[in-house]
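Okay, any thoughts on this one?
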Amino acid sequence: MRDLHDHRITGLHLNESSNTLTVSLTDAEGQRGADLVLVNIVDLYVDGFSLQNIILDASVFHEKSTSFEYQRACQLLDIDSANASTFADSRTVILIQASAGAEIACLASGRIAI
């Protein structure tokens, strides 16, 4: 998985017809980075978007976990973290934690990697 620590989120674009979220990024020095495209989104949570949206960490889960990050993503998405059926049909839980600004959690169908 690519290290996104200290990258900044400069924009979000939700395409409801294709169930994708494009997260526009710049690196820590402000140079334009690649867009992160989250596909096959089933459920999405975004909160705290502001003038500064600095990423602390990004976590991807293909099975349930006892980690804080997994528990946090489940809490934000209002899903039962103990329920193994969360991963029925090869679903993926993704959490983008913020040092400042936007926090993003999503549930996607299929096996997604960042």
